[in-house]
């Protein structure tokens, strides 16, 4: 009987520790420290929404990431619902094989005023070129003209050192901020602690 009581008491203590630990973690301040703020926001990063909005969402994404593709329309819809209050800053975390070159394509398309067009067509055909383990980014060349992108100019612009420097800086910033998976979101410097669309929506709502 004493042994059974001891087991029940131990389980009760463990549950208390788990609940207490979860509460403390959830309510702790996980905000990016002031010395890392520059790694979160770079002046060259592409911005959607109101550039003067008081609430800033920073998303680190990989164009080969299926979850990033899934979140893209979701976040755009939140921006659409809050046109004056929100801005989205897009940063790169090219973790998948050859994603570095896909990011270079997006940035080179930006020089033609086709940033979002390139991103969206790359997401649109992601299941064709970004198959797991064997990506074939050569297929992307055939998709980009669909949105009016000049492929020859794009290939030349991809070689620009400023594009290479930009991508390397983003990769360095993922290391500084501890970004290890995509998409990774920060809202006004606060990371999305528990990942999920509802959790992201709640975090954004708390900062509006």
From TrEMBL:
Determine if Signal is one of this entry's keywords: yes
Q: Identify the Pfam families for this entry.
A: Thioredoxin_4
Report domain Thioredoxin positions. Answer: 17-208
Q: Does the keyword Signal apply?
A: yes
Q: Which UniProt keywords apply?
A: Disulfide bond, Oxidoreductase, Redox-active center, Signal
Cross-referenced InterPro entries, in alphabetical order? Thioredoxin-like_fold, Thioredoxin-like_sf, Thioredoxin_domain
Write out the GO MF terms. oxidoreductase activity
Q: Would you identify the family this protein belongs to, as annotated?
A: Belongs to the thioredoxin family. DsbA subfamily.
What's the protein here called?
Thioredoxin-like domain-containing protein
